[in-house]
Amino acid sequence: MKTIVLQLLLQILLILLNAFFAGTEMAVVSLNTAKLHKLEEEGNPHAVKLLKLVADPSGFLSTIQIGITLAGYLGSALASENFAGYFVHWIYYDLHFTLWPENVLTGIAIVLITMILAFFTLIFGELVPKRIAMQKSFEWSKAAYGVVSGIAFLMRPVIALLSLSTNLVLRLLHCKVEGNDENVTEDEIRMLVDIGEEKGSIDENEKEWIQNVFDFDDLSVRRVMTPRADVIAVSRDADKEEIMHLIEENGLSRYPVYGEDLDDIVGILYARDFLLALGRGEQPQVEKTMRSAYFVPESIHADKLFSDMQKKKIHIAVIVDEYGAMEGIVTMEDLVEEIVGNIYDEFDKEEEPSIEKIGDNLWCVPGSTNLDELSEELDLPEELPEEGYDTIAGLVINLLEAIPEDGEKIDVEGYGLHIHVEDIKDRRIEKAYVSKLDATA
Fold first, then answer.
1. Is 350 exposed, middle or buried (0-12, 13-18, 19+ CB in 10 A)?
2. Among positive and negative, which fits the CA dihedral 116, 118, 120, 123?
3. Cα-flanking dihedrals φ and ψ of residue 251, to 5°?
4. What is d(CA 106, CA 261) in angstroms, rounded to the nearest whole number?
5. Are residues 331 and 382 in the same domain?
6. Which of 30, 32, 65, 391 counts the most CB atoms within 10 A of its CB?
7. How far apart (Å, rounded) are the C-alpha atoms in residues 19 and 435?
């Protein structure tokens, strides 16, 4: 009886040993390096050790794998050897079941014992400890570090032999000895963000900001800029009264200064500079008060422009085309808003929604609405083409093949849409009414 109890205790010990190594392996691979760096900065000695381990875990994990393998094989071998005899003796001699010979019963016993052992090993030696280790990765790794490090030190010759053998086999198979460092891709991060939102750890605004950061790299400055037609500029020859009226009426902090026309931008007038000069009792002139303008090509991307403006400490840039004609302006606030959304101060009037649904299959759309935004809002099956234009107004003009006149009413169809326009000012489409030709699309 004592023998059976000792053998059972040995099996339990081997399962616990397997649990220790399996849990340690899961804890190490689940360690949060960002959290470890933070703990290191706070002076946590365990974080320093674990960071070194995370940087080069091969020897540590090899030791763990040896432990798991030995515990598993020893447990299986001992169970088959020790308990199969007891099982056969009980069936054959105690129950007098002699229908099958002893060797057949021995085979059946080995299979049954292996299955029972596998069940308990999987539950208590693998799944449960790994679940706990995933939840308490730092605490488990901290507790196991000393024990596994000691075993690794003692087993260095074995680990070296295993490593040498593994590398030899890999070379024979024409595989790389060193594994490739996998870079986390943008798509993988986006997928993690989606999962985080589904689980509630990331809210909708945070998800949108993260997505906007990735989209920022591919964003053309044309999508961000205030177009030429909307630019509020001041003439180089404007007098004090004109400038004061302009500042009072618009409340902007910076104004492009032009010479002959908007294609001749000569500088940027800062309202603050002008008002401070007035406060000192001076009679400021635009040319003497303005600062130099910063010009960028329309082909530049938003992320590059943002970086350049940060380095140069510039808050407004003038966008020009390949011929030097002014296309529009971009402010630092415009760029930031592409990531975090609209920013309002106490002087800003809150904008109305750019696209307003006014019927089951009817949307009111400002002429300056970007086509990508329209496609997304209307859930169109395909993106609208952007062939030399970015907005719904550009699309209408392209379909119309003419510049509309003020007061003219227009109806055009194309790309699965019917577009009705009746609000035209200075040959500019201010507003359009859009419906899908196939309402079920």
1. exposed
2. negative
3. 70, 20
4. 101
5. no
6. 391
7. 63
Which pLDDT score is estimated for 322?
86
Query: Could you count the other beta carbons within 10 Å of the beta carbon of residue 332?
Result: 16
Tokens read off for 302: 């938003």
> pLDDT below 70 — which residues of the chain?
1-2, 56, 80-106, 177-184, 344-353, 381-383, 386-388, 439-441
Length of the chain in terms of residues written: 441
Please indicate, yes or no, whether residues 231 and 129 belong to a single structural domain of this protein. Answer: no
Q: In terms of domains, do 317 and 244 share one?
A: yes
| Helix 58-89, helix 156-172: angle, nearest 10 | 100
Judgement on whether residues 19 and 149 belong to the same structural domain of the protein: yes
| pLDDT of 63 | 82
Token pair for residue 293? 């303008």
- What pLDDT was estimated at residue 254? 92
Report how many domains make up the chain. Answer: 4
* Domain, as residue range, for 323: 221-340
Q: DSSP readout, 78-141?
A: HHHHHHHHHHHHIIIIIS---SS-HHHHHHHHHHHHHHHHHHHHHIIIIIHHHHHHHHTHHHHH
